[in-house]
Each structure stands twice: as structure tokens, then as C-alpha cells.
Amino acid sequence: MREIIFDTETTGLDSREDRVIEIGGVELENQFPTGRTIHLYINPVDRKVHPDALAVHGITDEFLKDKPSFAEVADQILDFFGDARWVAHNATFDIGFINAEFERLGLPPIVNERVTDTLALARRKHPMGPNSLDALCRRYGIDNSHRAKHGALLDSELLAEVYIEMIGGRQAALGLVTSEIGGLTIEADDGPIIVMQRERPLRPRLTETELAAHAALVSKIGVKAIWAKYSG
């Protein structure tokens, strides 16, 4: 299964008026990063970056003025995503902006069936929250110390790590600890397991009469009886 973990930065919060100015994406194949990414800055053409948005991502109008428009990179975005699932944190926001851009170009929208919202996943898995990207990085021990401001590719890379952790995609640690308890070997990945033992074993649940009847039945069936392997 192919998935693209992606993020956008925008000029503001209103997809009807504001524009996408950055998109970043990380490709996963069967929940494993392939190393392929997409990262584009986009000129909003007739829209200025709102000061509140600037404080979040730090992308200025001056920086964007020589970047391509969304119309110029739309095919590149569609080619990279292909038939993959679109995975984002608070996906309603990002997909809303992407679909608004596609609508302006007369392109079909990304349907909900192709979208995974990691915020919704996090709220189901951790209902007490918090479930921001930074909070999830702390929960899963992912280093986000270099995230001074929001950035589409950086946030996509962090979200990819969070997403893999949330869905249990990483292989469990193989460092096993062995402990000898009561003549049994018990293995665990975080230390010895302590097993409480009874002072006196429980009485058998089968009577001697029942055991004899079972032995007689096995003998009657013959040597091919599967129970013969466990008798004696």
C-alpha cells in the first residue's frame, strides 16, 4: 500500500480566499519510508501572507515572489501522489486547501475515501490528548527539537514517524532477557517475568475411571490415534 504523508503551509486560514504556499510529502510503501519526497514553495500570485500565518511558518511574500504558481506545479503534485492515500494531521484543513486549488484549475477533488487524518487516529488512540504534532512527538520519543517553525517537509517527516508508531508499524525490539523461574525459561523484552507459583499443585480434574476409559478408547482406535502421541 502506497501512502503520502503530507503537509501544507498557507497564506491564512480561509481556503476560499487564502492560498497554498508550501507543500511537502514523504512516500511510504507498506508503512515503510521509501526515501522519495516532494517539497515545493508556491507563489500565491494575488494573495499576501497574513501576519498570523507568517508568525507560524516564517514564509515571506518576498521569498515567494519568484516561485512557481500552483497552476505550474499541479501536475508535479498529482504525478507524485498518484493513486496513493493522502495522509495529514488535521487533514480537513490541508485537503480543503488542496481541493480549493484544484477547483480553481478545473481539476477533480481528492475524495474523502483517499484521505487519512492522523489527528482523528490520535484522538481515538489517545482520547485524553494532547494530540498536536509536537505532543505526539514527545509521546513517541521522536526528536523534534529542530522544529523552530512549521515547515511542510519537516512536519511531514515528523508526522511519518508518528504515524508509523501510531499504527504499530515498527518492529518490536529483539533484545530479550532470559530468566529461570521454577525450572521454566521465560523471555521478555523489558526484563524477567516474575511468576507466582502455588505452594501445593491443584488436584487433577480427571478421575482414575475417566483416565482409564480414555486409555481404552485410544487403544481401541489403534496406533494412528493422535492421542497416542501424548499418552504415557
Instruction: State the end-to-end CA separation.
Output: 51 Å
- How big is the Rg? 29 Å
Average pLDDT confidence is: 87
Structural class: alpha/beta
* Unreliable segments of 5+ consecutive residues: 172-183
**Proportion of strand residues:** 15-25%
Helix content estimate: 25-40%
Strand order of the largest sheet: 3-2-1-4-5
Blueprint of the fold:
Elements: E1 2-10, E2 20-29, E3 32-41, H1 51-57, H2 61-64, H3 70-81, E4 85-88, H4 91-104, E5 115-117, H5 118-125, H6 133-139, H7 152-166, E6 177-181, E7 184-188, H8 208-221
Description:
The protein is an alpha/beta fold. Helix content is 35%, strand content 20%. The chain is built from eight helices and seven strands; from the N terminus they run βββαααβαβαααββα. The strands form two sheets. A five-stranded mixed β-sheet has the order 3-2-1-4-5. Strands 6-7 form a two-stranded antiparallel ribbon. The chain starts with a strand and ends in an 11-residue tail after the last helix.
